[in-house]
Inverse folding.
């Protein structure tokens, strides 16, 4: 029987990088600096006017949806957390490395299954990089995936902000069922935000998350070439918004691509996932987050 052990993770100060090589360390350090300032600036640009980026072949000028991807990607939602097992919404980044943000016993079983699924899919047959959020349950998920697939821990690269769970503002601490109100608002506009709260929990719109995951993909597509990368998110929204952007689907419908805890998907930008709604209800979006 496979014995799974997980460790607690404490985010290091900004000057410490978790990357496995000197080159990667330098890049991660530069990526870390002023990320929140960058996200704020990009969010403002989306609000003020549509962002127009000329088509270019140069790597680093990442667009959604991309004409092609340099690497192959697998998307994994972390297993159930202790908070989720209690039916409580927890998205405050202050608590992301706490024990309560870690995997529940059910969550650990979900990720063993996910890790075995990745093994069956041959995801790491020729090696892979695992990029988890530093959030406790996501990092523990990465550890289990690495153990099952016999991948060195040096190939786990913690992500410190771009993969944070979507901040749900005033819904923090409420019952998980209340999140349906957020998704109802998402279907109206990708810029709608949950009500704010003063405890430090962000209140992020779909467009805000889209900025984060687009920046993450820009980093990955610039830093790696012809590699396999497993992205591990603590929540579903990061992944649904990312997948919608990659295949050119209306971000207002991202929830239709919902990830269950422990779910694994291979990214194929040439294949648009089937919505749960009838085909006539599908909206395509070629200039996200501006979808009309």
């Amino acid at each position: 029987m496979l014995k799974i052990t997980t460790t607690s993770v404490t985010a290091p100060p900004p000057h410490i990088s978790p990357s496995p090589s000197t080159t990667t360390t330098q890049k991660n350090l530069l990526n870390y600096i002023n990320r929140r300032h960058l996200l704020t600036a990009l969010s403002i640009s989306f609000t003020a006017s549509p962002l127009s980026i000329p088509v270019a072949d140069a790597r680093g000028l990442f667009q959604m949806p991309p004409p092609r991807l340099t690497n192959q990607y697998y998307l994994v939602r972390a297993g159930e957390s202790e908070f989720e097992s209690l039916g409580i919404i927890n998205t405050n980044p202050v608590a992301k490395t706490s024990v309560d943000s870690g995997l529940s016993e059910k969550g650990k079983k979900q990720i063993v299954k996910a890790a075995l699924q990745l093994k069956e899919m041959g995801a790491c047959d020729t090696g892979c990089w695992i990029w988890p959020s530093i959030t406790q349950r996501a990092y523990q998920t990465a550890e289990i995936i690495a153990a099952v697939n016999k991948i060195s821990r040096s190939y786990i690269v913690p992500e410190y902000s771009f993969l944070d769970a979507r901040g749900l503002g005033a819904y923090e601490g409420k019952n998980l069922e209340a999140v349906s109100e957020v998704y109802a608002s998402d279907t109206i506009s990708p810029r709608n935000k949950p009500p704010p709260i003063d405890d430090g929990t962000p209140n992020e719109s779909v467009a805000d998350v889209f900025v984060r995951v687009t920046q993450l993909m820009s980093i990955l597509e610039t830093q790696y070439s012809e590699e396999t990368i497993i992205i591990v998110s603590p929540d579903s929204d990061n992944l649904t918004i990312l997948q919608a952007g990659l295949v050119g689907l209306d971000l207002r419908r991202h929830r239709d691509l919902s990830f269950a805890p422990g779910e694994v998907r291979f990214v194929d930008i040439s294949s648009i996932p089937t919505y749960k709604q009838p085909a006539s209800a599908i909206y395509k979006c070629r200039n996200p987050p501006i979808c009309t």
